[in-house]
Amino acid sequence: MSDASEQIPGGRATGSTGPVSPTRCPAVKLRPASYLILGMVGLGARSGYAIKAAADQSTQFFWPMSLAQVYPELARLQSAGLLRREEDPRGARERHSYALTDAGEQALADWLRSAQNEPTQFRDEGVLRLFFADALQPADQIALLRRMRERAAAVAAITREEILPSAEALEQAGTRCPALIARLRADTHAYVERWLARAETELR
Fold first, then answer.
1. From the CB of residue 39, how many other CB atoms can be counted at a distance below 10 Å?
2. Which helix (H) or strand (E) holds 144?
């Protein structure tokens, strides 16, 4: 979906982020990925692996993050005083877990309350192909639409069968918003599937 936006040092953000008071946290460049990690730690994902796994089951739909982004960002946020790293060994293997500091909690809360928003961006390679699909023969255009429709149907099904149950378990425990987003994901891809089916019919 959206690309990451940049932040301005000193606490004021651009993109979908909002102002962070410089009196409450260090002057550090906070990006959407920064807030994603702070939020995941706040929800209980305490390791880099757990953060990536949680993102794959939730925010990947609208804000993808690679594992290669997670660990450098964790180190950056720790250095800025927004996260606290703790030893969490597993047998002989060295491991660490992370927790929000008071400054990290405040930075996340300030961002959540911010009214600043960039226009919604939509990134999908299939849609980009469809935009240029007049270069194809009609049969190839229909095949492209069919592949896109099947993909949308598969994502909607996976969301309902695998992602939504976990989000609804959180909802039962009092954390409601991940389930709202899981339903948005399922409903969005179901709508896209119907729209592509109509477009396929029109081209036929």
1. 19
2. helix 138-158
